[in-house]
Design brief:
Structural class: mainly alpha
Distance between the termini: 40 Å
CATH architecture of the domain at 18-77: Orthogonal Bundle
Strand content: under 5%
Oligomer: single chain
Radius of gyration: 14 Å
Number of strands: 0
CATH topology of the domain at 18-77: Arc Repressor Mutant, subunit A
Helix content: 55-70%
Order of helices and strands: HHHHHH
């Protein structure tokens, strides 16, 4: 827990607004839903390698080392009133 506490304890979130591109947000949203790289690539019509490249860029830009940390940072940075639901192609939300 020390590493997580130190990372969040630095005030990193308070110093600047995190920026994730629209594509990065799509990838993070699908990752948060539990999809793997192949499934994300299929949903977004990308190659698996491109998904990995987006993650590499996010890790470097936001100084995180895991996908879970990237998702957590993205979720913490979202406005509270922004909807978090998303549906996957072929599985629309229940109405």
């Amino acid at each position: 827990m020390g590493a997580i506490h130190d990372w969040f304890g630095t005030g990193m979130l308070g110093r600047r607004k995190m920026h994730f591109s629209m594509r990065q947000q799509e990838i993070l949203r699908l990752t948060a839903l539990g999809l793997g790289d192949k499934e994300i690539a299929h949903q977004l019509r990308l190659s698996v390698r491109t998904v990995g490249s987006h993650y590499s860029r996010m890790f470097k830009e936001h100084k995180v080392h895991t996908r879970a940390a990237a998702v957590a940072l993205w979720l913490l940075d979202r406005p509270l009133d922004e909807p978090t639901n998303v549906w996957i192609e072929g599985n629309p939300p229940a109405t």
